[in-house]
Amino acid sequence: MNVRLNSLAPDFDADTTEGRISFHDWAGDSWVVLFSHPKDFTPVCTTELGAFAQQKPEFDRRNCKIIGISVDGVSDHQRWSGDIESSQGVAPNYPLIGDPQLNIVKLYDMLPDDAGDTSEGRTAADNATARTVFIIGPDKRIKVMLTYPMTTGRNVDEILRILDSCQLTANEQVATPANWEQGDDVIIVPSVSDDAAAEKYPDGWEAPLPYLRLVQPSR
Questions:
Q1: What is the CATH number of the domain that holds 200?
Q2: Which domain holds residue 144?
Q3: Same domain for 131 and 190?
Q4: Is 24 helix (H, G, I), strand (E, B) or coil?
Q5: Assessment of whether the complete model's pTM goes beyond 0.85
Q6: Do 87 and 182 sit in the same domain of this protein?
């Protein structure tokens, strides 16, 4: 299955460290960050799972659920959680999906169909492409896909920044410029005419180029 931006996030049933879930039902009306790992008991992933746990209140504040998936079974995840807590200061406080038959990583196009049907005997290097972060909207469509090499730990602050941008631009006819953060100017998208923009932004905007109109977002 080809998974692309704006495609419907594939639904699935799976066992997790917090019980069995049906993904779309579990997501409900929330935003979701689904992030994958190639193997349990790996060093970079251990730090990432701890970092997501530390930042969970920030995701909660944004009406965003977080859920991990690693290409191993739930019993391994539960044992791994102890290592994460002892080394990172906090255990995962969100579900971690077990995928020992590789069904979900294939469904999300992170491993090829011919990768086999078991995680047994596979190394992290065999599963290296299972390193993607998906941000999924309340409409169950994929808004963001970020794939990282195994040697580069994910920046949770950056994922929160991208989530902020997605949530803002989902509700406003704007885009966010390079290095944008909450409170910065945004870009009025080209599909909005100057006349329409003037109605929404009566105080005007800055236009260093005719097609680059910068304005403070509506409150």
A1: 3.30.1020.10
A2: 13-152
A3: no
A4: helix
A5: yes
A6: no
Specify whether the CB–CB gap between 69 and 34 falls below 8 A. Answer: yes
The pLDDT tens digits for 151-208 are: 999 999 999 999 999 999 999 999 999 999 999 999 999 999 999 999 999 999 999 9
C-alpha span between 133 and 33 (Å, rounded): 7
For residue 165, which of 148, 146, 151, 152 has the smallest C-alpha distance?
146
Judgement on whether residues 182 and 148 belong to the same structural domain of the protein: no
Closest CA to 144 of 219, 216, 64, 42: 64
CA 149/CA 41 separation, integer angstroms? 17
Residue that terminates a domain, selected from 152, 180, 203:
152
Query: What CA–CA distance (Å, rounded) separates 22 from 152?
Result: 31
Q: Is the dihedral of CA 100, 76, 81, 116 positive or negative?
A: negative
Q: For 29-59, what is each residue's pLDDT tens digit?
A: 999 999 999 999 999 999 999 999 999 999 9
The Cα 106–Cα 104 span in angstroms is 5
Residue positions counted in the chain:
219
For residue 158 the two structure tokens come to 């950056």
State whether 94 and 201 are in the same domain.
no
Candidate list 34, 45, 66, 69, residue with the active-site label: 45
Domains in the chain, number: 2
Same domain assignment for residues 45 and 123:
yes
List the beta bridge partners of residue 134: 34, 145
- Please say if 45 is a catalytic residue: yes
